[in-house]
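Retro notes
What went well: the complex prediction finally ran end to end.
Inputs used:
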Amino acid sequence: MSTAKTPSSNGKPKVGVYVCHCGINIAGKVNVQETVDFAGTLPNVTVAREYKFMCSDPGQELIQKDLREGLVDRVVVASCSPLMHEPTFRRAMIAADANPFLFQMANIREHVSWVTPDKGAATEKSKALIAAAVARIVLHKPLEKTRVPVNSNALVVGGGIAGIHAALTLADAGRKVYLVEKEPTIGGHMAKFDKTFPTLDCSACILTPKMSAVRSHPNITLWTYSEVAGVEGFVGNFNVKVRRKPRYVKEDLCVGCYECVEACVFKKGVTKDEFNVGLSKRRPIYIPFPQATPLVAVIDPESCVQIKRNKCKKTCVDACERGAIDFDQKEEIKEVEVGAIILATGFKTFDARRISRYGYGKYPNIYTSLEVERMVNAAGPTGGEVHLKNGEKPRTVGIVHCVGSRDSRTNAYCSRVCCMYSLKLAHLIKERTGAEVYNFYIDMRTPGKGYEEFYEKLLKENVHFIRGRVAEISDWATIPEEEGKLVIRAEDTLVGAVRRIPVDMVVLSVGLEPHDDADDVRRKFNISCSHEGWFLERHPKLAPVSTFTDGVFLAGACQGPKDIPDSVAQAGAAAAEALALIDKGYVELEPNTAYVQEEFCSGCKTCVALCPYSAISFNVEKNISSVNGALCKGCGTCVAACPSGALQQNLFTDEQILHEIEGVISYV
Amino acid sequence: MSDNDRNHFEPRIVAFFCNWCTYTAADLAGTARMTYSPNVRVIRIMCSGRLDPQFVLKAFREGADGVLIGGCHPGDCHYQEGNYKALRRFKLLKRFLSQMGIEEERIRLEWIAASEGDKVQKVINQMTEQVRKLGPLNLEPISQMHPPKEKNVKAKAVAMAKGGAS
Amino acid sequence: MSYIYYPGCSLKSTGRAYEESLLAVFAALDIPLKELEDWNCCGATAYMSISELKAFALSARNFALAERQNGEEDYAEMVVPCAACYLGLNKAHRYLAEYPELRKKIDRALEAGGLKYNDKVHVRHPLDILVNDIPAEKITSQVKKPLEGIKVACYYGCQLVRPYADFDDSHNPQTMDKLIKLLGGEVVDWPLKTRCCGGSLTGTVQDVGIRLSYVLLAEARKRGCDIVATACPLCQFNLECYQKRMSNLYGQELNLPVLYFTQLMGHAFGLESRKLGLNRVFIKPSRVFSKKEGGQYVNS
């Protein structure tokens, strides 16, 4: 067992141990009284108490009273994870005029009571963690946080509805915003929709005003057809490189008059039109859609013969009176400094080909929901007409829910939006064609304002609902009525029988998935992903738009499937969090930086090359290394490597950790 | 340790988890109420790169039967590449330990992302069982490790130490 | 690469034509195939339904033997043509890897027989090998009598591609389709290619079993198919041998030849029909093979 070796400046350390019941969260598994009695026997412990909720005001008051009365001068709280309440208790320390770093938490909830079935074992493990905390806290020294100013600009990545809303919120608050979008236009998925559920208001009517607001906002710099190439720095002071791909059309000169598009040597579309998800074709020079923002043409280097083979009459150049077309445009790298970053990179839809039994890609009249969204859109490739490949109107349509959702073979999670958009599409298809519409669902999930009511409305519209996951879709006809149709086979769990429903057209309600490059993106911004690939929030309930990297926030579906109202709400929240950071004007950095004890440094320079932030420099005159505290991020890699023990890390000195090891072992 | 006899051996395992991935994952395992064996005691460090090999030696010296190290997946380090440094040191340390007669299975390095609460559960349970199978690590007390063969050896050592100090 | 051939009981009895044609085709392609010495039952059907442990032990013995026969080579590539064997062995392969408790028991059983299994076996189906290991040119270069104008329904059956196989899609598999196309044949779009043939129900609840087989053939016929190609001895048996009964029951003359895909390959390679077991076939394909030579084969 260890004892304190370095008493604090005012004599022998006086450690207070406070064990939290957390209601029954801890007390249900850990014998709190026993741990308190035990803590009282530990060296240097002068006070050991218990309380129902240490994080509550009366709980904090308990600590503060002991501090003020001089009973204790350093504090151990045994409760939840430090990632949860360390800031709370540090603030309580400050309020009692104590240094907040003379504080240590023992995590006896997440790491003990919630994971240990046996009460005796849970109590013993708690004792060990308390002993470890006590053993290390006697070595804690008062520390100060350093303040670093915050750059007031912000970066928003992704120009869908979430990114647009976040950018506008920040810009309206007077902050300079850089909005980076991968595609040639902002608008994202929402721009492709015809109507939005459950109100059925026109998607373009509510979105396009926000898009033009972005374009004209004096505080927003919009970079479309661009990607973030790299991020350096840290909270408040990020340095971001943005790669602007050449669009071969000068953005400042083009007015979006379509003359060049009309003049292109290709008189018809040649490439799959991305905006119409492949339902139509576009020319090599194009404007994604009439409300594209910016309304600037773009040339696709993959299909333009001038770019590919340097051999074209260049009719587009002649057609452009403003001389905006520039085949010599090169990729550009822009470098900006920002204080906060909001990621709103969105989602992709599930590739229905992955479920071969649904026949997508094999049978022509099987569509994905996104394709039908374009089809029902008056500005879409069919002018709002819903028709089959042969041009006829479908008389029966089957809508298959949960394609790529709620299935352990593809994605186990619920994509949250499919039930509602399926209802919307059912309504629109019925409205446009008068067809009989069958919905095949597992459960109807309609939690949201007006959502259940919308479902009720559809039931009254005589849309059919069959409860059961679809087994397969084929053209295998067993009776004359099925001839020439697509037959949907599903178990109707309400009837208790397998049903075969012949239809003319099938809509696969595809789920939402993270983008293919989500992993590269998150690495660039140094944040984490859930195992499905969605960006991970700092806390699922209490920090839903923050990440584990300070200064990087999340908005919209990049964090998980979300509908438009939720994406916008989250974007607003992310903007508010970014503003809170920026408007404070400074950030306080955790003082867990490394430092050199000069008298022990042998000048071997091992540490210098190890630091990923170039925070360590070498003083040739004194033949020692020194750490720049402003650059040090506190990983401690150099400390672990220092052969002479000259490098130490605040809050994680060798001695502190060695004591913690002793503590943890002694009471196992 | 009365409960550490052959019939009922409860391994003592010290874990060093990095703050950003593995410690968070352990918190997640807790929030999700994934129960696992209570033999592992976690010490939080900011980065697996902070893991000084002497911590591992210290843990064994103090009576640990196993040491578990958890860091972010390759490419995911919060500090860019601390986990690679940890891996490098781990490999050397493993060799060193086996030369000292400590079985390789007593030390384990795992990459566990913040979202992998289930992996924390799995790894801790596996590690506990693995060390349980190996049995206690009975290091000799330091005083018995190098018993002086002749009396004058100790005297010589003392003399040398004194000579060195002066 | 050399392969170890695991025939299983069927290929030595009802499915002899499968064995004969498989060996002939592999020989023509110059792919060495060595039969596993002292092989035993794969453990399928009866064993698996009564005692899983015994079934897995039987599979494991085959694995251990394959490893031993393979010698020092890396992995033993075990060629398993019968769909039931393929499923059973693959299942054992998976379970041995995933269930340590089971593995312990099996290891003890093997030890008693002086054997040891070190997880160095790959269970492979000939379709997998012919499409994924053998270059397409090697196959096309052997084609002497292309299956031009012959419409083939590729029937994979229920056991071959699910749930353990990973060489093909479980609902719309493509490997046999690819092979038939390489041979010059035309593949009928037939959505029932993995639907149940009736399996052993033809021997137990006959009316159900025969109906299942009939549904497959009737749909194939409807889609203009000349020949059904199979990869499973039981499927071949069910689909071919009950056609008379089907016509009695359903009043439709089917008269559809049902061949192993290896027989079709051998025929396209111009191999002697006796070597391909075509003499064992009840519904002779000669009509199809000869009539198409005029380029105008019409279904009778």
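What we learned: The two ends of chain A are 12 Å apart (CA to CA).
What to try next: split runs per interface for comparison.
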